[in-house]
Amino acid sequence: MTPPAPSLTTQVLAAQGLLGAADVPTLAALLAQAPQQIEQALLKVAASGPAAPSPAPDARLLTELLPRALQLLLNAEQVVRAAELVLQHGTPAQQLDFLEQAGWALFYSPAARPLLGQLLSLNALQPRLQQGELLGLQHIWTVEVAGEPHQVERRLPASTGLSVALRATLQARIAQMFDQAPRAIQQAQIAIEGFPNDLVLPALLARYSLGLALLDAGQPQAAIAPLSAALKGANRDGATLLQIDALQALSEVHEVLELAAPAELYAQEAQRLRRQLGLREPQAPWPDEAYNAFPQLLDRATQQLFAGHLVDIAAAAAGLAELEQRERKAFYCFKWRNRLLHAQSWLASLRHQDAALTGISAGFRSDALTGSFAGSSLYELELAVLQAGCALLAARPLPAEPLLALETELQLRPLPQLLRRLHLIKALGAAAGADMPALLQWLNSDDELLEADARWLAPKLVGPLAALLASASIVHQPQARSRANNLLALLRNAAPKPTSSEAQAAPLTAPPPGLTGREWQVLRLIGEQHSNEQIASALFVSVATVKTHINRVYSKLNIGSREEAMQRARHLGA
């Protein structure tokens, strides 16, 4: 016998239980009744009063009303409320139906993403979640939220029912996380070709992936179009998290291209959205033990290197050693590894550890000697410039041919900041002394990395800066002269030095390894800014003998100028 249909009043109570205090038009749409009838039912509900609690609606009624309620909420873009309803009242089949319809919208909604995680977890053993597009949704959650791309890479070959486009999108994201920019570009292009249009969120993810991979590959100009397409579609579909990702990527692209105004605008819009949604700010600190704390700890070590005191440098060395241990045990992206290597090279330079600098420069790409950097990623090019700088600091500049090949590739991309850094390295490594015109050009640039590069290359830069300021060519270059003066003062004060308490407790030191006692005396007097004549008078020797000692010290310590000798003497305790 068929059970009697529930009264309209009962249906209204059930609908209000699902939707809350919904208005008459919403209840009418949900119950397929005329608004006038709904109003009458609401009057009956109100007349009954709150004296007795309303009985809970039966499961059959909720099962009938729930799909319609979910659709109404989705049409009204209330995806969070819809997810909460299906979690509370939905059967596994209804929850999976809902994921098929709205899973990607949940994924890109900051408030709904945790609810997506609950739905995926509750239905992890359901056969429908083990194949097809729902499996793709599970995979993207594992890659992006769980941070386990290797797990998905292992499972992809056996994953059935995935479309070619969605499979390629997943492969592009995995390749990008594993620093495989060329493969990421290839897979993202396959994915874009496989989607008939950009009206679905996975198609927008494919475009975002392509733009990010092009940036990583050192093709920032080409990255603008797909990232802009992803941003436009995300704005249209209300995919807030994808909006923020695309805005941040576009900001980075324009920073690389040195277009400061659009870079700042994109960054500000991303920050506005984060604050509006109460999301974590990118600069908010992570716990030191967290995986994502790696760049934060690098920044801390870099600031300690900036401070310049021996105690700070020792703390930086300990921090960098710990980060090196982390990097050996876990996978970190190429960008972070380059930053670690840069800090390590700076520390080695401050400590005059030429063997460590030579070790870094020895990794310079061997195929570059054939004159080709084509196909190199942004971070491979960044590493090559870093290695060229380390070779200079170790007094073993790289041959001209590979440097020219690297310069040509940076010009083709274009990558202006890396190109200027390489020009500075080449200028300081010129065979006949520093290339003053190139040094002037560097000083006249608006590069934000001016001070950072100056500090890194300080041992090779101090002397040329002093020589430039003493030359006639600087007279009509007011900006270059001002910057050269400021940098020279900065670098002379940035040589490693003891704190006041350390200075009071520091005894006279023995000669450093490799130097004789007399050579050490000469170097110490150079550090005190004595001239050759003053040194000769202090040691009761001829000026020619002083020059002989100086040449031997320069040769043994790979010193290239008197300014560098002064820095080295201060560091060694003179």
Characterize this entry briefly.
Residues 508-573 form the HTH luxR-type domain. The chain is mainly α.
Could you characterize the architecture of this molecule?
There is one protein chain. The chain is mainly α and 574 residues long. Among the domains are: 163-281, Tetratricopeptide repeat domain (Serine Threonine Protein Phosphatase 5, Tetratricopeptide repeat), CATH 1.25.40; 291-493; 511-571, Arc Repressor Mutant, subunit A (Orthogonal Bundle), CATH 1.10.10. Helix content is 70%, strand content 0%. The longest helix has 20 residues, at 310-329. The N and C termini lie far apart (103 Å).
Describe the largest sheet: none
The structural class is mainly alpha
The number of helical elements comes to 31
Helix content: 55-70%
Mean of pLDDT: 83
- Strands, count: 0
SSE arrangement:
Layout: H1 8-19, H2 24-31, H3 35-48, H4 59-75, H5 79-89, H6 92-107, H7 113-122, H8 132-144, H9 149-155, H10 164-177, H11 181-194, H12 201-216, H13 220-237, H14 240-256, H15 260-277, H16 294-307, H17 310-329, H18 334-350, H19 354-361, H20 378-393, H21 400-412, H22 416-428, H23 436-443, H24 450-456, H25 458-469, H26 478-493, H27 500-505, H28 517-527, H29 532-539, H30 543-557, H31 562-571
Helix pairs in contact: 1-3, 1-4, 2-4, 4-5, 5-6, 5-7, 6-7, 6-8, 8-9, 8-10, 9-10, 10-11, 10-12, 11-12, 12-13, 12-14, 13-14, 14-15, 16-17, 16-18, 17-18, 18-19, 18-20, 19-20, 20-22, 21-22, 22-23, 23-26, 25-26, 25-31, 28-30, 28-31, 29-30
